[in-house]
Amino acid sequence: METIAKNSILNIPKLRKDFPLLSKKVNGKPLVYLDSGATSQKPKQVIDAISNYYQTQNANIHRGVHQLSQEITIAYENARTTVQNHLNAAVSQEIIFTSGTTESINLVASSFGKKYIKAGDEIIISEMEHHSNILPWQVLCEEKEAVLKVIPINENGELHMDEYRKLLCDKTKIVAVTHVSNTLGTINPVKEMIALAHEKDIPVLIDGAQAVPHVRVDVQALDADFYCFSGHKLFGPTGVGILYGKEKWLNEMPPYQVGGGTIKTVTFKKTTYADLPLKFEAGTPHIAGGIGLAAAIEYVNEIGLENIGGYEHELLEYATLKLLAIEGLRIIGTAKEKASVISFVIEGIHPLDIGTLLDKQGIAVRTGHHCTQPLMEHFGLPGTIRASLVFHNTKEEIDVLVNGIQKAIKMLQ
Hints:
By secondary structure, this protein is of the alpha/beta class. The protein folds into 2 domains: 12-43 and 304-412, Aspartate Aminotransferase, domain 1 (Alpha-Beta Complex); 47-302, Type I PLP-dependent aspartate aminotransferase-like (Major domain) (Aspartate Aminotransferase, domain 2, 3-Layer(aba) Sandwich). The protein is 40% helix and 16% strand. It is globular, with a radius of gyration of 22 Å. The model is unreliable at 1-7 (pLDDT under 50).
């Protein structure tokens, strides 16, 4: 299953050896892992960085005068700088460590909402959002008696930009949209969307969970006010993520959670909170997670995100062609600009049944609504089968997927 792509400079066999779990067998078959959209596999460089922390650096940060604490504090803050450089944030204080995209969005919805949202205000999201970029805004709207507005999509899975322009108004207080749809693979024109919102002085939050593993993100070039992503989608550990926020907004917003590490002084009468970024990082953080995330970023940068994107586009085109040759198969999400995510359905067969039979053949895909139930409702579907491809996947694995689907169809018809 290991080949060097004809039009790519990537050495795929060599890269695959970085991922220990890819050598695993499932149900006696070689694992074909096509579920990186749910969580990515981890290269040994990340695993080793986490192991090294626990074996040689384990101590708490920002608290001790002893050598171990000082050393790991420096290493953790260096990890923050690695993220800053990766996103091209202006200063490291704009990088907040969280538990993941979900917490990052909840942080903004809670803290920004507490300060800026009042009854009658409007918040804009899109029809293709992950539940994690719907629920926090719904809760905020219920609490503040604000109104949630939704950008509709067309049948290709692209946003209706004319409708978006119409939704932007004086009542709009924030826009929150996904950069790349986790279900459709659609790459949204977020730079244009941010510029349109900024014409009316409206801040924009971008959910970048599915974008950061595939494309180069420059938050200053985008002019994003907030940008969120999760480590575990970017070949890093689970339980760690990032909120980038412009210093202006983060300074004005109240703390999200409070406790150890977020303060300058505490008395029973009054507490003074710490400067950024500690103001938003209560308690002992996921130190190993931050170290592992930095290692993951260094890993993908060594390969080159442009190289990764080029090869993944090859895989997307190849998989699309092969899958469409299967009778009765329909791809959901055919946007002109797509990341390497393919959702599909097969006429007359429930996605869960296909997914179960693929698993018996060692093929890991995602089935269901993918935490995008309103999107499934738009297409009138109970769910889809999703294959999410990354740079360690091969065209041979796609062939295995296609053969596996054909076998499953014969068994179920």
